[in-house]
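User: Hi! I'm working on a homework problem where we have to compare a predicted structure to a textbook description. Could you give me the structure for the chain below?
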Amino acid sequence: MASTIAPVDRDADEVRRRAAQQEKNPPKQSLIERMRARYEWLDHLVRAATRYTERHGDHYAAAITFFSVLSMVPLLMIAFAIAGYVLFFNPALLDELRAAITENVPPSLADTINPIIDQAISQRGAVGFVGLLAALYSGIGWMSNLREALSEQWAQVPEEPPMLKRLLFDLLSLLGLGVALVGSFAITGLASGFAAALLELLGLAEQGWAVFLLRLLGLVLGLVANWLIFLWVIARLPRKHATLRSSAKAALFGAVGFEVLKQVMTFYLAAVTTSPSGAVFGSLLGLLVFTFFASRFILFVTAWAATAKENEQEDPAPVPGPAVIRTEVAVRSGPTPTATAALLGTGLLAGVLGTRAFRRR
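Assistant: Happy to help. Predicted structure tokens:
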């Protein structure tokens, strides 16, 4: 029985053979692969779409849409509470509202609406308090889903913070986003109003070119405001902050695309609300569609930023597997050739010696 140990390199030889064959006969590229190799922007879009799909962008967008619609109910409750306080401290306005209701609706319906208004005014404190609590719950849930979705697009695997710490940070992020939105729209409105007042002062309010420049200024200010908001959302809302420099181009892409999305949704709502059923449900459906597509667009822009050349992480080189050692055992039923030769030699020698001893006798 004999045993030999030798490394088996057949797999390595097969890999080298296939690599050499591919170098001689490279596989034919498809049209999209050739276009990606030719146009860098197209390759970037494909990488972003792949990242968005692999990181469950649509699922996160659906969750963000759910919490966005859910938050509308407590916001309406807060709005009713505010209206109740306004009407309570302004009896003249309350009397005008009741008179308008009485004149424009049937008497039976007026008798139903006026008690509802009185009840809303009397329970304004409770409605506002419950609405505020519900708004905080839905708002924190919305922000938590948004931050998780953005972190997923950046391929981040951050450590899960404690629940209280996470809720506190999500609440601060929600307040920060609200302040940023209000500030950006306020700056845009004040700048446009100042420009309109300046045109009135200079006597150019009726000039067509001046009105065109004013609208152009409003558009530019809106893009700047959207750019700042997208920059903050992409770079600062993920669990691990990204650099502002790497998110600047994506924020510009998001600002322009968001303006296009708003214009498209404006035409969509105008088309939906023309029918009788659309007049009833069109606003709600429009809100759902706009929120869903806006959420998808924000996540896609984040994926576009994450797949930029300066942000992509190279995959680590694969570690070669351990050497495979096999033990070969050969079993033979008889003496080996060496032993056979030795036995024959010994027998031959014994025969010669025996013959000589016999002759001497």
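For your comparison, note the following. Residues 180-309 form one domain. The chain has a mean pLDDT of 74. Good luck with the assignment!
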